[in-house]
Every structure is written in C-alpha cells, then in structure tokens.
Amino acid sequence: MNLPIIYHPNYVAPMPFGHRFPMAKFKLLYEMLLADEITNKSHVFNPNFPPLEWIELIHHRNYIEEYCQGTLDAKAQRRIGLPWSKALANRTCIAVGGTILTAQLALRYGLACNTAGGTHHAFPNYGSGFCIFNDLAIATRVMQKLGLAKTVLIVDLDVHQGDGTAWIFQNDSTVFTFSMHCGINFPSIKQVSDLDVPLPEGMGDDRYLQTLAAYLPDLLSEVKPDLVLYDAGVDTHIHDALGKLALTDTGIFRREMQVLSTCMGAGYPVACVIGGGYTKDMNSLVYTHSLLLLTGA
Q1: Residue 167 lies in a domain
Q2: CA 227, chain centre distance (Å)
Q3: Is 16 within the bounds of a domain?
Q4: Quick check: is 181 catalytic?
Q5: pLDDT for res 24
Q6: Residue-wise pLDDT tens digits, 189-199
Q7: What pTM was computed for the model?
Q8: What is the DSSP string of 206-226?
Q9: 13 domain residue, yes or no
Q10: Number of structural domains found in the chain
Q11: Given this model, what pLDDT does residue 20 score?
Q12: What is the CATH number of the domain that holds 234?
C-alpha cells in the first residue's frame, strides 16, 4: 500500500483577513499532493469527529465544553491566539481525529501522515500559541487505551518547544518526549521534556542535522517505542516569520529523510503531523510542508 495520507475538508476554517495563522495552507497542501502525484484520492483517509471521552483523556471537560461552545473567557481566548468560531471548533476536533487515525494507520502500515496536527502548546485546561487541543497527547492516550501501543516516543522538531506535551507526560514513563527547538523562541517559560535540545539562533542545515543524528538513533535504542509520533514543523525554515533557525528547503527534506529512515530502518512505525509553519509566501510554505509527504511517499 502507498503512503496513507489523512485529510478532511474541515481542516480549513475561515480566519479574519490578514490573520497570521495560514489556515488556507491545509487545502493547498492537499491540492499540491494530488497535482504533483505524491498521492491520489485512493490513498487519502478522512478522519471522524473523535468521541468526547477520547479528548477527555487529556483535557478537562469544562475546558473542552467552554471552547466548543464559544464561552471561554477573553483572557483564555487571547492566550490561544485564534478568533473563535464554530467552524474552527469543529476543525480543531476533526484535526485531533486525524492524528488519531494517523497513529492507527501507522501502526498498521508502518508510516502515515496527517496533513494537519502538531498542536503541542495545548495544556489540559487551556490552549496556547494557536493550539487548542493537544492532538499528539490525545492520540498517544487513545493508542494506549485501545491496546495498540504501550510505549510512545514523541519526536518534536517544531521550532518551538512542545511545552504542553512535555507537561502532560512529565511523570509518565510510558511516553518519552523529545523536543529539539530554538532555545530563545516561544514559549518564554519552557517545560521539562524527557529530552530537551535547545538550539542557538540561526543554526543552519548541517549543524542541525548533525545534532539530530547525535540523539535520535540512541533514543530509539533506549526507548524501544511501539510508535513514534513525529511533529515535523517547518517553522525551522530560514524564511519563517516566527522561526529564528535557518534551515533551507534542502535541509528540511534531509531532516525528513533522516527521521523516517532512522525510525523505519530500525523497525519503528511513524505517525507524522505537519506542525507549524508561518512563511509569508503561501506557495513556498505549502511546498516546504509537502517535503514530509514527498519523503514518506
């Protein structure tokens, strides 16, 4: 079977004109994957709305209900950074369902990629940094609840530390959190992952890939995960508006190849999410996100 790709039309929710979160990228990414024949519709899976009890494995019920009903207080809404709408609430839940489905398909086929996901700044009782529900954490717990995986390794290469994920699993020996991020970037207050690798501002391709190679193979040997969840944020790109690192398109392609070949070569299934990306040139941003799917395919 070819690479399973997860996409849903509801990944696109209306945003006010000029808002810096590029919601349109999800549809454009899907269209690019079809146009460039990286995939075809027979290999695309549509996620379902996840049951409330699955989201409650991580998040407090009152927070879930207040967000979905649009009754969060103004301060909590500002912390998320996205203007609330019913469409966005539906999109948020569908994207969580997408990462759950991605994990299930990865365990079945060895590799699967979501065309959304990576909302690693969400904590159990609040959202932050454009993240509402933590899809990585929820998918991890659902796989464990369903008996599909016992030990999970979360490899977070978004330019920002996965602080919500780190906090959620801080005392959990069944989940290993690895975050390699720009040390001076958001969030200003970092949480403690099982392994944090803060990188200096302006780090480029070669040093970045050498740093990754110094950690990832040993982590796989140490953790021996049933599943790897990979957050492939491209806000590490040199032209990213919220980045501070200096990876090129070639560097990101090499990173994806390095992660997937290292994990799958050692026999570990990988579920991928696309993570952050805020390059102002939408075509360039979508192309950079597509490198993960191209590598997987």
Answers
A1: yes
A2: 15
A3: no
A4: no
A5: 85
A6: 999 999 999 99
A7: 0.97
A8: HHHHHHHHHHHHHHHHHH--S
A9: no
A10: 1
A11: 61
A12: 3.40.800.20
